[in-house]
Design goal:
By secondary structure, the chain is α+β, with helices and mostly antiparallel strands. The chain has two domains: about 40 residues, no CATH class; about 60 residues, Roll (CPE0013-like fold), CATH 3.10.530.10. The protein is built from two helices and ten strands, in the order βββαββββαβββ. It has a five-stranded mixed sheet. The longest helix has 12 residues.
């Protein structure tokens, strides 16, 4: 038996996972969240990548969709190796299909690369 708090709506139901079943939810979102969290947890990754700009040395990015929680550290290793050399607009793909997850790493800010 495992307890978790649902984060899908403001109610914050206490969910109980026991023998493959979820109880304690007050809506279907809670049931779906609990089952997913116990069987295949996923997360949106938000972080930054390096740039060659002296005024904007980091660019904020995120995954375009939720990725398996177990891949987060491997994904961060890939992201940390990336350096952006060109001007970027919000939504630009920085890394395509990271680790074959189907998720892209996309920019969440605009930057101009101004070099010294």
């Amino acid at each position: 038996m495992k307890k978790l708090i649902c984060i899908k709506c403001p109610i914050g139901c206490t969910l109980i996972y026991n023998e493959g079943k979820i109880t304690g939810y007050k809506c279907l979102k809670g049931k779906e969240y609990g089952l997913e969290e116990m069987t295949n947890p996923v997360r949106i990754v938000t972080t930054t990548v390096k740039t060659t700009s002296y005024t904007n040395p980091r660019l904020s990015v995120k995954t375009s969709k939720a990725i398996p929680k177990g891949l987060m550290f491997e994904i961060m290793k890939e992201i940390n190796q990336k350096i952006v050399y060109n001007d970027i607009k919000i939504g630009d793909v920085i890394i395509e299909n990271i680790l074959n997850t189907g998720a892209n790493i996309i920019a969440t800010q605009n930057i101009k690369i101004n070099r010294i």
